[in-house]
Amino acid sequence: MHKFAVIIYPDFCLQEITCLTSALAVWFGEKIQFIASENREYRSEEGLRVLPDKTFDEVKITDYECVIMPGTVDPLPALFDDKLISFLSSGKDSDVVYAAISSSPVLLAKAGVLKGKKFTAGFFMQMVDAFPFIEKQNFIHKGVVIDCNVITAIGMFFRQFAAAVLNRFGYDVGTDFMDARPEDYTEEQLTFYWSEEDYREFLEELKIYQ
Predict the structure, then answer these.
(1) Which one-letter DSSP state was computed for residue 96?
(2) Does the pTM exceed 0.70?
């Protein structure tokens, strides 16, 4: 088992990371902690209300093998959150894998994690001029970029981002990860049955509700 954390902040985007978190939790049985600056309710950009498991004061970034960072429609609250930036910065010389998508690489840039590393991001290019800590010469205009322990991606490539992180931790998800097309499947392939053992477990659980 590996140790994963998702960092949340105001207006974080669930859609960009749920291919990854769902595969980790449901397919591979990983436990994911959600961490934030404060022990309070955060709203995703979709409007979901979320409470973190831990705050940055309660953990160290090196407690985790990978920190996952969703994008956000408004990165400024996170960008000027000193606790968040300090937390990210504290692991910049470690082996922690930073997995950041969409606008969130700007947080890594401010924390010094991207110094000298190639990266991509989904933020508007004017932000490069607005923030001198973004190393424009290292910005690569590709969907997913991996440099050492940093995995970055543009938001529309959330599936490929998830596959890159999963592959990094030894999970082989093939080349068409979460990209199945209905027309490629027969009726037989789309008819599902439990194993006998799973069916018995279901019937036992069902008794609780009857």
Answers:
(1) P
(2) yes
